[in-house]
Amino acid sequence: MVVKDRVVVVYNPRSSKAVRVEREVLDNLKDGGRDFGVYKVRETSVSDNAKRLANFLRRGDIVIVAGGDGTATIGLNGVALSKEKVKLAVLPYGNFNDMARMLRCKNLEQIFESKRVRKLYPMEMLVDGKHFRYASCYFTIGMFAESTKIFDKPATRKALQKGNRSLGFSILRLVEWWRKNRRKKFLPSDLSATDILAVNGRSMARIMRGDKKLAFSKEGFLASKQRLSSWVAIGWFMFRSMIFRVPGGVAKDMKLEFDKEVKLKVQAEGECTDVKCKKLEVIKPGLAVEVITR
Asked: For 186-212, b where at least 16 C-beta lie within 10 A, e where not — what string?
């Protein structure tokens, strides 16, 4: 790919790998004399950052996200909201890197040398009929969503910044959290579940398999309802998800409706948010985002 248009790098200067991003991505672009801009993720929200990024973009930009799935979600939503004709690429500088793994570019050279641009069809979540978020790989509602908040705790962030960045470290923290919290009520009782899952990408939290074809088609996504409060249930779920794929059927939409307003924990690719609603829906809206892949 011959790069003539502006490159926009999206990264979080407070992340555990920010120094590497600045050295391996920003310095590289400076040395190469490329026209590039930088969007630094703010300490606000995914929605606020996505809107700011959308306003920053212009026609022809190549948007390179250098970060984990939370930063990639900002990049995806910013591109989608901008309505500009731009291309999106993602480099893996996070813990799980599901979106980067799906697009398969590991460094700047692979992005710039790639001749493969594909149309990615993200899922969209609607809250009481209004747009809430786009996600390329997965949404979770319930226990999995709430568990990701452990990575916001100062002790965990400090450990990650000191170098305990392995997948094993992250999984151990999640297992410890699940053991202590598995009996809590995560969803309304009438759902008889701890988790509602919508999986669109190649993987979920890196170790659980999705369906890599779904993200690049309008067909739908994997919809799944699970009760994972026992050792047997979560063990069987993880086994099936790691060896085969996340259990569930392909659906074009998934609706949750309640008699009164409820408060739900909703996660879009590692970013957990509290949502109050009477109706929550996940759809495949047919929106296409151009992505650079290998």
From this structure: bbbeebebbbbbbbbbbbbbbebbbbe
CA distance 263 to 261: 7
Percent helix, percent strand, percent coil in the chain, to nearest 5: 35, 30, 30
Whether residues 16 and 108 fall in one domain: yes
If asked whether residues 92 and 179 sit together in one domain, one would say: no
Looking at the structure, tell me whether residues 114 and 45 fall in a common domain.
Answer: yes
| pLDDT tens digit at each of 294 positions of the chain | 445 689 999 999 998 899 999 999 999 999 888 889 999 999 999 999 999 999 999 999 999 999 999 999 999 999 999 989 999 999 999 988 999 999 999 999 999 999 999 999 999 999 999 999 999 999 999 999 999 887 766 666 666 655 545 667 778 888 899 999 999 999 999 999 999 999 999 999 888 999 989 999 999 999 999 999 999 999 999 999 999 999 999 999 999 999 999 999 999 998 899 999 999 999 999 999 999 999
Residue 100 CB-density burial (10 A; 0-12 exposed, 13-18 middle, 19+ buried): buried
Q: Is there a single domain that holds both residue 106 and residue 145?
A: no
Residue 151's CATH number: 2.60.200
Instruction: List 221's β-bridge partners, or say none.
Output: 251
Can you tell me the distance from the alpha carbon of 70 to that of 29, in angstroms, rounded to the nearest whole number?
23
Q: Is residue 1 part of a domain?
A: no
10 Å Cβ neighbour count for 161? 15
